[in-house]
Amino acid sequence: MSHRPERLAEIIKKEVSDLLQNEIKDPRRGFVTVTGVEVSADLRYARIFVSVLGTPEEEKAAMEVLNRVQGYVRGELGRRIRLRCTPEITFKLDSSIARGTRVIELLQRVNSDREEAPHE
């Protein structure tokens, strides 16, 4: 088993994070965080998972910006990473952070309800 896809995924994650922070200046991008990257075994495809802080409308606007700059990001990856073939990239919205935050809020509400309830 090769560890190359995992190593490449980490490099792509770092480079795309840097690109989004320093190169993509569109204000509709919002606060985007790269949460993970999956690279296919043949290194031809990469799924970049991003989390967007904000409302569902802000998430949608940020994803539109990311899909629009997909070619630019791939070109920059090709310049920054020495590979025979730069992977085709797709951006996917990662809502796991939002789900985790919601679960924490629910657990805190349950705990506060228990503390307020009279003990028998």
TrEMBL record:
InterPro entries listed in its UniProt record: KH_dom-like_a/b, RbfA, RbfA_dom_sf, Ribosome-bd_factorA_CS
Organism, as annotated: Desulfotomaculum copahuensis
Assembly and binders: Monomer. Binds 30S ribosomal subunits, but not 50S ribosomal subunits or 70S ribosomes.
Taxonomic path: Bacteria, Bacillati, Bacillota, Clostridia, Eubacteriales
Family classification: Belongs to the RbfA family.
Molecular functions (GO terms): ribosomal small subunit binding
Keywords in alphabetical order: Cytoplasm, Ribosome biogenesis
Database matches in PANTHER family: RIBOSOME-BINDING FACTOR A, CHLOROPLASTIC-RELATED
Gene behind the chain: rbfA
Name recorded for this polypeptide: Ribosome-binding factor A
Localisation per UniProt entry: Cytoplasm
PROSITE patterns: RBFA
Origin superkingdom: Bacteria
One Gene Ontology CC term in the entry: cytosol
Pfam families registered for this protein in UniProt: RBFA
Record's function text: One of several proteins that assist in the late maturation steps of the functional core of the 30S ribosomal subunit. Associates with free 30S ribosomal subunits (but not with 30S subunits that are part of 70S ribosomes or polysomes). Required for efficient processing of 16S rRNA. May interact with the 5'-terminal helix region of 16S rRNA.
